[in-house]
Amino acid sequence: MFGSVYDLKAFYASGPGRLVRRLIRQRIREMWPDQAGLRVLGVGYAVPYLRGISDNAERVLSLMPPARGVHAWPDGEKNLVALAAEAEWPLETESVDRILLMHSLENAHAPQALLQEAWRVLKSNGRLLLVVPNRLGLWARAEWTPFGHGSPFTASQITHYLTDSLFVHERTQRALFMPPFRSFLVLRGAYALESVGQTAFPGLAGIYLAEATKQVYAGALKARAKAVTGRRILVGASVPTPG
């Protein structure tokens, strides 16, 4: 299950999936309230959340890994999705303002290489948001959801990965406090559980949302920047202004 992007798409089209999307999107909007004029990149399977956080962004792109395949997005509009290896993104160095990693880090073959590529692409004042399953939460054990696959994390593990990749961990939020059941009664009480869970039982959150900024110091850009020769550059090229 969840071997392809179409499995993920089907989950988010289901009743529980739509509710999960609303709950997580609400938390993302609280952390990133305005992306006006910014370049936003989603990596992994972030398309259910991109439209909600980037309606007024300057540009929006999504990258999906070859192992799961790719589908066009948005439906019925110009495609904004590309297929890319997890550590070889066809993007210019320092070309993106916001990066959302969703269903990505926990499924990466080389998580550190993935974060290093995010560091390369992110602008010096940009922000990274990781959405990953909580190792101690119930959702990491629910194999009928995408959060029950891959390697979940503890909060300290997330901070460790970010620090090793030259990111500064800014804050961590939690979401998905409702049990991973498909019962209508459980789903109906999801918003109440989401509110109570933040203070009553934060350790049982289904996911972490960890925000980080790029740590830049003398020589860091030169050390981390990778050659992009031969890559197809999707963002960053100058566009002439109509006369």
What does this molecule look like?
By secondary structure, the protein is α/β, with parallel strands linked by helices. It has one domain: Vaccinia Virus protein VP39 (Rossmann fold), CATH 3.40.50.150. 31% of the residues lie in helices and 21% in strands. The protein is built from eight helices and seven strands. It has a seven-stranded mixed β-sheet, sandwiched between helices. α1 packs across α2 (15-31) and α2 (15-31) packs across α3. Residues 225-230 and 236-243 have low confidence and may be disordered.
* CATH structural architecture: 3-Layer(aba) Sandwich
What's the helical proportion of residues?
25-40%
What proportion strand?
15-25%
The CATH class assignment is Alpha Beta
Q: Do you know the CATH topology? A: Rossmann fold
Can you say what the CATH homologous superfamily is?
Vaccinia Virus protein VP39
Rounded radius of gyration (Å): 18 Å
Q: What is the makeup of the main sheet?
A: 7 strands, mixed
- Net shape: globular
**Total of domains:** 1
Query: What's the total helix number?
Result: 8
Q: Secondary-structure element order, as H and E?
A: HHEHEEEHEHEHHEH
- Ranges where pLDDT stays below 50 over 5 or more residues in a row are 225-230, 236-243
Kindly report the spatial arrangement of strands forming the biggest sheet.
Answer: 3-2-1-4-5-7-6
- Kindly report how far apart the N and C termini lie: 52 Å
Q: Topology, pairings included?
A:
Layout: H1 5-13, H2 15-31, E1 39-44, H3 47-53, E2 59-64, E3 81-83, E4 96-102, H4 111-121, E5 122-133, H5 155-164, E6 167-175, H6 184-188, H7 190-200, E7 207-214, H8 220-224
Parallel strand pairs: 1-2, 1-4, 2-3, 4-5
Antiparallel strand pairs: 5-7, 6-7
